[in-house]
Amino acid sequence: MKATVEKLDKHQVLLEIEVEAPRVQKALDQAYRRLVKQVNIPGFRKGKAPRFILERYIGKEPIYNEAAEIVIPPAYEEAVAEHKLEPIDRPEVEIVKVEEGEPLIFKARVEVKPEVHLGTYKGLEVERPEVRVTEEDIDAYLKNLQERNATLKIIEDEPTVAGDIVSIDFKGTVDGEPYPGLEGNNYPLELGAGTFVPGFEEQLVGARVNEERTVTVTFPADYHQKDLAGKEAIFQVTIRGIKRKELAPLDDEFAKDVSECETLAELRQDIRRRLEERRRQEIDAAVRRAVVEKAVAAATVDLPEVMVKRRIETRIRELERNLQLRKITLEEFLNATGKNIDELEQDFRPEAEKDVKTELVLEAIARAENIEATEEELRDEIEKMARITRQDPAELRQNLDYLSFLKYDIMIKKTIDFLVEQSVAVPPREGGDGETGESRETGETAATEG
To answer: Are 362 and 288 in contact (CB under 8 A)?
Structure first.
């Protein structure tokens, strides 16, 4: 087989491939055997008509086309491998010549990964703060443990205070009209948790069981439901029940109840160890992100639109899966946000472009440094996955798509390891928070905003 490559533009190449005559003849024989079984020819049992009879009955062109479909895909793959091309889309194929006893010639126009011009990626300076855990961090963690292990006392004759968990019936109106979704019955709400619209929970402090209150709030200007953003809403709220957290005292008994520690002092030491390990992981992750971002920023590459679009589609599919978990359709989400699919794609474009560039740059660094997955690393990962999924490692190896993904994943991780090893650690900037861009969260959970 012969193959030549012509570069058409920054992303496209044209392959001209010539497949030798004996290989074409073999494909023609195979094509005849396939087609003769599909055609009923008078006077012959199905599949038994000679080739010249079949050609007289259906013509030569179907046989030549079938032979081309047999020959072209593997020949194309061989040419791609020979010239070390990395196609990013399906090729456009044009058959130039296919005849009995002659080589088959075809052209394949295909978009390939672009050339990446690497900048500096060794010796990158990244901040690496010290692992610090303060007594205040440990106190905050303990406070969170108290909250999570609190008992709830039913309150009947006292007004609500911040931190109480109330059960409410509520119905909201906007512009004097009921609004879908702004209502609920026996809805549990922790006062002060910031779950509802700002100002809602504060207006229920001091209320008693069965008391009705009128709550007036204004939705934030950047509220996710565009038709509510900046709007005033009036809620009729009835307190149906009040529960108050009772925190256990911080003593040795508390330590025994919530952990395997015997004393509060031991628990504090265990918390320090956990927080230090978490902080170490946060710093490591931040350093890895920083070196990748700097290496990517230093490189230049013209992003192929097909790769960007594919990444946008992936992000939309991920969004759909997450919405399905909340029993929301993509259409409902778009209606709620006041966007159409084109606007959603534009929202995803910047991150999609960043993803594609990062992928291309890391691949280019791996090539430049000859970084790839070793057979030992591949075996270890397959055995690890086999233990998790309770599958035979040999079966996993038979899955070529999974094997390809695993090799790629190992290569990318090793490339980032390489960037970190080659980087230069510097102390955080004076006056900075020493967090390498990360926020510190010492409690087990963080309040979420609805």
So the answer is: no
Give me the pLDDT at residue 366, please. 96
Return the structure tokens found at 184: 């609920």
CA distance 325 to 19: 51
Give the pLDDT confidence of 73-96 residue by residue, as tens digits. 999 999 999 999 999 999 999 999
> Per residue in 112-123, pLDDT tens?
999 999 999 999
Q: Which two tokens stand for residue 112?
A: 């390939």
Residues 6+ apart with CB under 8 A from 116: 299, 300, 301, 360, 361, 363, 364
What type of residue is 87?
P
Residue labelled with tokens 């456009």: 92
Q: What is the pTM of this model?
A: 0.74
Neighbouring-strand partners of residue 238? 169, 212
Q: For 4-35, give the secondary structure using H, E and C.
A: EEEECCCCEEEEEEEECHHHHHHHHHHHHHHH
Give the pLDDT confidence of 357-416 residue by residue, as tens digits. Answer: 999 999 999 999 999 999 999 999 899 988 888 888 888 888 878 888 899 999 999 999
Per-residue model confidence (pLDDT) at position 118:
95
R_g of the chain computed on alpha carbons: 33
In this prediction, residue 431 carries a pLDDT of 54
